[in-house]
Amino acid sequence: MIRTTLIAGAAALALSGCDTPGAYTAGGAVVGTGAGAALGTLAGGDDRRNALVGAGIGLLTGTAVGVYLDQQQAALEQNLAGTGAYVENRGDRLVVILPGNVTFATDSARIAPGFQGPLADIAITLQEYPESFIDLIGHTDSRGTDEYNQRLSEDRALAVADFFRSQGVHPGRVASFGMGESQPIASNETPQGRQENRRVEIVIIPAQA
């Protein structure tokens, strides 16, 4: 079951490795709901748009969206230089890929101390460009059970979302959920492919009028 969340607490330890079954540690409380509700609130559902407007955050129109994304992409790439994370501009949104091997320890949903600095810089940039919704999406490789991978993906996305909120990003902008092993971007038959599949994506979607 996909769970959307609005966040709660994270930290500790970084190593590389694969997401295999085990007693991993997760931080924060999870508020769960069904898949239908999840798809209704993610990517700028009415509740989140209303939260932005209620907080005095404006909505973008027309050509402003492209300029907004280009400027924010440049700032994020500066934040992430040398970390192994990267930014994709997909025309209507930005997707920041956080590789699992640099963001979390094996079997853990606690953010690695060495990656908290770059995430804090990202949080500053997100506050400098407030006219957007931020979806945190966790992914794993195919090793381990479906249930285990689903939970780990959710908890990792939650940890990053929680961190952003703790850094002052407006909670009404942020939602998190996990896709488990269901959306690989590489083959799970090789170690390199599995490493690519273990990731958290920060999806930044302009809030448009």
The low-confidence runs, each spanning 5 or more residues with pLDDT under 50, are 1-41
Question: Can you count the helices?
Answer: 7
Roughly how much helix do the residues carry, as a percent range?
Answer: 25-40%
Spatial arrangement of strands, main beta sheet: 1-2-5-3-4
Distance from first to last alpha carbon: 31 Å
Could you say which structural class the secondary elements and strand pairing correspond to?
Answer: alpha+beta
Q: Order of SSEs, N→C?
A: HHHEEHHEHEHE
Arithmetic mean of pLDDT: 81
Integer-rounded radius of gyration:
16 Å
Largest sheet properties: 5 strands, mixed
How much of the sequence is in beta strands?
5-15%
Number of strands: 5
Basic shape: globular
Textual characterization of the structure:
With 209 residues, the protein is an alpha+beta fold. It has helices at residues 35-41, 46-54, 64-80, 100-103, 113-128, 146-166, 191-197, and strands at 86-89, 94-99, 132-139, 174-178, 199-206. Strands 1-2-5-3-4 form a five-stranded mixed β-sheet. Mean pLDDT is 81; it is low at 1-41. Pfam families: Gly-zipper_Omp (PF13488), OmpA (PF00691).
Secondary-structure blueprint:
Layout: H1 35-41, H2 46-54, H3 64-80, E1 86-89, E2 94-99, H4 100-103, H5 113-128, E3 132-139, H6 146-166, E4 174-178, H7 191-197, E5 199-206
Parallel strand pairs: 3-4
Antiparallel strand pairs: 1-2, 2-5, 3-5
Helix pairs in contact: 3-5, 5-6
